[in-house]
Amino acid sequence: MVGMEIAREIEAFLAVAEELHFGRAAARLHLTTSRISQSIRGLERRIGAPLFERTSRTVRLTPLGQTLFEEARPAVQRLEEALRKAKRAAGREPQAVMRVFFANSLREEVTTALMQGFAEVYPQIPLVRYAYPSMQHRQWCDQQRDDVFVSWFPAEPGTLHLPRVHVGPVILREPRSVMVGTGHVLARHEVVDIEELADHDVLYPPPVTRQFADAWTPPVTPSGRRIHRVRRMTDSYMEEAVTIVVQENIAHITITRLPLIGLPPDLVLVPLTGLQPFWLAPIWSVFAQNIWIPEFAELAAQTGSRAGWLTPDAP
Description:
By secondary structure, the chain is α/β, with parallel strands linked by helices. It contains nine helices and 14 strands. It folds into three domains: 2-76, Arc Repressor Mutant, subunit A; 94-173 and 279-307, D-Maltodextrin-Binding Protein, domain 2, CATH 3.40.190.10; 176-276, Periplasmic binding protein-like II (D-Maltodextrin-Binding Protein, domain 2). The strands form four sheets. Strands 3, 4, 5, 6, 7 and 14 form a six-stranded mixed beta sheet that branches. The model has no long low-confidence stretch (mean pLDDT 86).
């Protein structure tokens, strides 16, 4: 009985930590808000310290709560994966179509290698690929989808407060560049440092979450200089960003190796220093039932590791 109580408390804790909202956590677990609160209080009594800072408007993890979350979440995911593998070993895995949405800013050789890596291990599983706008992470946060999205993250995904999703291991790290029109003053530079962007208008990306947008285009430089971020984008990302950059003479932070097909000739990508590389990783809904999604995520990470993609300057 005690073991079951701890399991329920941990489940409630992880839901609240991901949602940062007791009501949404309750809806996700099909429980009442009071039941969630009771489980959290029980876990806090068991530990002997608060895990959340609560006000009438916000819920935040305490430092202890953040530590527990960072250790408990992967442990639960490993347990879930062990159960999935046991089911497959018992011959009870259901036949399913594996649908993979790739960011349309991703190079063809990368998507092809990831598809082949899965197909070689599981040739019996139908695999369907789609190209999708790169900044559509909220689709997987807000919808109960049964597929996976492989896209870019401007920092370690666990720091970006993306709710109701699992994020798989990193596949690739990509250096940053500044996208500008050929008439922009930065187009004449061989390299641009993040400090120089404080002197120019910079495109602010769609706010997947505030933490996500701020990690993509920071509000200030490392030395504290303010970056003038211009809000023009909605959510289609590549096509929209290209148009705004060229027509309005605005700089945009992006990945270094964009697909060249479809990019106008009056566009320049200049290497950017002073910010960490982008991460490529798979993301999927916590409600997904397709047992092959975690397997795809793991195989994709293995493909990236073998190809040397975890080094930011890899070819």
